[in-house]
Each structure stands twice: as structure tokens, then as C-alpha cells.
Structure prediction request, 289 residues.
Amino acid sequence: MEHKSGFVNIIGNPNVGKSTLINALTGEKISIISPKAQTTRQRVLGFLSTDDYQIVFSDTPGYIENPSYELHKKMLGYIETAFEDADIVILIVEPEEKDINPDLIKRLKSLQIPLIICINKIDTSQQQKMNELMAYYKKEFPKADVMLISALHNFNIDVLLARIIEVLPEHPAWYPKDILSDRNLRFFVAEMIREQIFYLYDKEIPYHCEVYIDYFKEEDIPKIGATIFVSRESQKRIIIGKDGNLIKKLGTQARKNIEKFLDQHIFLELHVKVKDWRNDDKILKQFGY
Prediction:
């Protein structure tokens, strides 16, 4: 059998489980997750490699209908790129979800490559609802594979992976087989800090935060310094909390996750700065957008 390799790009509405799915498929924590929508902001590639194939999975931000900031436009750009370089597209939806953007549906129907529709979170809905949704998507996309999965509980992930391998094009590996992602350590560390912001803070606060790694000193005990950028002074006060109690809690939780990821102890230092970064193209480029 010839070697197979290709880009398998995962798209869908916000908070439907795209990041959980890529983590389940690769067996690694490629993308951060949280209960809040729009946790993923950048396109992240995760690789699953064997002697016979390499699958380049792509996690993308949730589809935004009316972008309000330059940041949102950048996020939509990642989705556009995912359509352009895909060899296989996975559309992930939730039970009872039929409210998909008409432009997105039109784009999906025009695809000339394999489309796999995954109805996720099946443990949260009744079988009759699932059957109705399966019938709906099979009618709307007659050429697509439609399957039920639970990314969180690994249900049917093996079936999905087998189908991906089956329709993967013949091609040499796109990336070295000894790496897991196209992103470096600094990116993952920043994302783990940002992930905890989504868990610890409410309302609009996580959406006004970006994390930048100032330094990463690889010593016996690595020293990491990071700055949390917020849009307004009032948000800075919320991040820090009374007597610094919240930022201490954030630092502790983030440090534990980073230590688990790196499998070693670290020192983590956090600072907070105010800057209207979401509409500043220069700053967004500095952050990797």
C-alpha cells in the first residue's frame, strides 16, 4: 500500500466540541477546551503518524457570522484557509442543531472532497432525536458520511478514524513524523494559561484576554514569564482580584497544568497589562494571528 497523508480540517459552530475531537483523534492535548464558546482562536495542527500514514488534523475557531473586531476577521480567515487546503472536511454538530450559517452550508455542498458529518455529544440527547438528525443531514448532504460520536467519551472515534484513513489521499508525509504539532512550546504554555482564564473568570473577561510569553528559560527548573493583555483597566483589576487573590489562583492552576504537560516542575510569573489589542493588527501579528 502506498503511503497516505492529508489535511483533515474540523469545522463547525462555536462550542460544538471541535477541540475535544482533535484531542481524541490524536491522543494528545493539541487544543485547549472550556465550557465557554470561542475558546479556540487560532488554527492549530495536530499530527497522527504511523509507518503507513500521516493525518494532519486542523482545529479551527467556531464560525462567526458578524465579526466585530479585527481579531474575529483573523479567526474567520483561519476557517477560509481550512477550506482551501483540506483533503477531507469534518463538520461537527450538536444534537438538535440545524441552525448552521447558510453561507457555510453552501460552501460545504460545493466541496469536491470527502465530507464527514459528526453528530457529537450524543450522550446528551434521545435516540429518536439522533435518528431525525441523521436523516436530516443525509438528505442535505447525500454524498457525505454521517455518524454519531462522543468526542468526550471516545464513542465511535475508532470508526471515524478508520473512515478518515480509508479516504485519505496517497501522499508522502507533510511533516516530520516525530513531532505532534506545528506549534512550539511557548504557544502551548500561553494557551494553558488562557485556558484557565476561561475557567476562572466570567462573562466577557476571557474574550478580552490574550497571553504572551515574555521569556522561557530552560534551566533545571524552567522559569516562565507571561503577560496577560486585557482591553480595559477595569478588566485588569478583575484579573488580579482583591489583594491579588485571583491572579494567584490563576497562576497556581496554570502552573499545575504546564507542569503536567512538561512533566517537570516550573516557576511561573504572571503580569497584567492594558492594551486594546483586539483591533490592533500590529499587536495581533505579534500574538501570532
Q: What stands out?
A: The mean pLDDT is 93. The CA atoms of residues 19 and 286 lie 24 Å apart. Residues 245-262 form the longest helix (18 residues).
